[in-house]
# Entry
Amino acid sequence: MAFGLVSVALGYRDLRPLMPDTGDALWLAAAETLREAGAVAETIGDARSASYAWGHLGALYEAERRYGEALSLTRKAILAAQRVNAPESLYRWQWQSGRLLNAAGRGDDAIAAYRRAVATLQSIRLDLASGPEASRFSFQQSISPVYLELVDLLLRRAAVFGDAEAAAPYLLEARQSVELLKVAELRDYFRDDCVEAARARVQKLDVVSPTALIVYPILLADRTELLVSVGGGLKRFAVPVGLADLTREVRQFRRTLEKRTTREFLPHAQRLYDWLIRPLDAELARHRIDTLVFVPDGPLRTIPMAALHDGRRFLVARYAVGTTPSIDLTDPRPLARERTRVLAVGVTKPVQGFPPLPYVSEELAAVREIFGGTILLNEEFRVSALEQNLREERFSILHIASHGQFGRDVDRTFVLTFDGRLTMDRLDQVVGLFKTRQEPLELLTLSACETAAGDDRAALGLAGVAVKAGARSALATLWYINDEASAKLIAEFYRQLQDPSISRAVALQRAQQMLLAEPRYGHPALWSPFLLINNWL
# Structure
């Protein structure tokens, strides 16, 4: 009965913005119903329902800025959730407590409350869409803000200190919180614990790659923070551009970048450069950086950073560029060139309603010419044949030149084979043969995949493909390029990859620079969508 009353109250609450003329009456109805639900729940000893009743009542008072009453009710909700060990509701009320304490000007207490909420989230590995509001759950609304609001408070606290040493613990905790969020996002997208195996292989990256600058762009409502890891330390740079303005600029950049016949993208490329790269110029020069590794957030996952422009040249003209969904999930070991073996597979024919890929034969032939290996083309490229080849021989590179689509959720994400669709779970099983070996797959290449423009979550799936497949790195495209430029870039990338003195990121940089130097292929629509994901070494 108490659960039912909470649901009724939430219905009143949700009607309020739709019926502004009766808003006060609906607020009172919601509050009275929640009080009744709380009283009933306590009478019958239903602490779980009591937690929801008092917590949501606290949220009603929070919306009215009655912070003292809201905090008192929220504490009752926390105690009730703790009594029945209900972490799926406990973290919500700890989070709410943090918001209320922050609104009341109690910054340190707010940080402590947010830490407790994050600790509760980290302790659970279950479907959080439970309780009387399951239909309202989404990761973006119910999980992500907990981490980001904590990061916001930590960065603000760090900004108070003029002394870098005093600010350092707050910056370190901010980075750790961002990393926890990144891992949670991938776990939510793939709906499994594929991330745990990747985390187990990590070593300290600042030592491994001293000439790489790792950039965490943190997108907040009122500003963008660039949290930079370089030389074993952390620095922050605040840019006065909020999430809405940045998102708008990113969307316009991506939309115009794909238009091969215009340079409409250029003002957007320059504006984004001014916001995301120019503040770092002094650090880049001081540490002699040659590689920028981005841990992108939200809309920034949908664009190629290599195509940002400083007014004279593209970013890739100066720096190799890598991207990773999480540094904690990056296995930072250089490629062992002396035993490189490639399995190259693809489809040129129109199958399952997808158009032909006329340049795939040329692409696969170039790959085999450079590294040797095995080719499975068209009818030969079936899931069973792929699995058999991976089981019988130790390949270090799997190159797939076939249509791939990354959707908003993992069920809409696949790579096309001649006879079916290779889902992410099936890819995990097939490539997962490497997980039991000492040497995992070094590189997974997906040369004809695409994500919908403006779809941050689909781009998250692309960013996480190496993690899901258990590969150390991936080379993949944000959008499909039906042009011989793609085959030329791939061939040059593998030629450069033969050189043991350069990293994977530099190999891609040189391949992109080669196309950029040719007038026919110089437009970034042709060379920039290729992303090197995860291990850039």
Summary: Residues 2-137 form a domain with the Serine Threonine Protein Phosphatase 5, Tetratricopeptide repeat fold (CATH 1.25.40.10). Residues 228 and 234 are 6 Å apart (CA to CA).
